[in-house]
Amino acid sequence: MAKVYYDGDWAVMLGPVFAETPFNYAFKGTNVVNYGHWLKAALESDGRHEVTSVPTWEFYELEPGAWDTILADYDVVIFSDVEAKNFQLAPAFFDRTRFGKEPLTFPDRVRLTVEALHAGTHMMFLGGWLSFNGETGKGGWGRTRLAEILPCRCLEVEDLRESTEGFVPQPVQSAHPILAGIDTTSMPPILGYNKVEPREGCEVVLQWPDGDPALTTGTFGAGRVIAYTSDPAPHWGCNFVYWDGYAAFWSNALAWLLTGS
């Protein structure tokens, strides 16, 4: 059994907002939404693996030393809509009661992540408005050392590609193990993706209709890594999650990470 740590694809929905007067704006409801339950179910669908799904704010709030332990304990780590600031900042930086008492520094979670992959913790980097370079650059992965372990290259500008008609990815390597038994012609329209560029030494397995990489793989040290440049959940993936091949696709992806085949 593999242990998978899945970071991201949760949200807190506040509202709707009612403007009752020019001076009174009232939120009528608070809901916690787990968009990641589809991917978690797909990865656990064959009964062999266990997925811990956590919201990004839980990752951000980890105590010093906790990320080291997670990277050591889990076989696979997934990041989806986890912008770079969650790696680079710590809640204590905004706690004024701690200012001036002693230097505020903490272990670099980007460095720890890069080192863990090289040591054999496998990873998936999945798309969204806060992934890769993201909306107006908010993702920021390419501006950090995460770029060293991504099997594609991030743009330096906003990388979102959106379409109400959607994009259907096309196989570049039909014989790749991730596509084994997958009917790619039946894939539904995907409503958006992050535009990235191929990386030398890494494989493009699927591409979007205009040739942008959709699914890329790479190996760095003892670790294998996958980048899927759209979201495994709504809204980009609102058709994807109901596709008959969804569970098999992600099960294959996880198997490739764990075994290379």
Can you characterise this structure?
The protein is α/β, with parallel strands linked by helices and about 260 residues long. The protein has a single domain (about 1-260), classed as Rossmann fold, CATH 3.40.50. The chain is about 20% helix and about 30% strand. It contains six helices and 16 strands. It has helices at about 35-45, 55-60, 65-75, 85-90, 110-120, 245-260; strands spanning about 1-10, 10-15, 15-20, 25, 30-35, 50-55, 75-80, 120-125, 150-155, 160-165, 170, 190-195, 195-200, 205, 215-220, 225-230. The strands form five sheets. Strands 6-1-7-8-16-15-14-11 form an eight-stranded mixed β-sheet, sandwiched between helices. Strands 2-5 form a two-stranded antiparallel ribbon. Helix 1 crosses helix 6 (about 245-260) and helix 3 runs parallel beside helix 5. It is globular, with a radius of gyration of 19 Å. The protein starts with a strand and ends with a helix. The mean pLDDT is about 95.
Question: Low-confidence stretches at least 5 residues in length (pLDDT < 50)?
Answer: none
Distance between the termini: 16 Å
SSE succession: EEEEEHEHHEHHEEEEEEEEEH
According to CATH, the fold-level topology is Rossmann fold
Summarize the structure.
19% of the residues lie in helices and 31% in strands. It has 261 residues and is α/β, with parallel strands linked by helices.
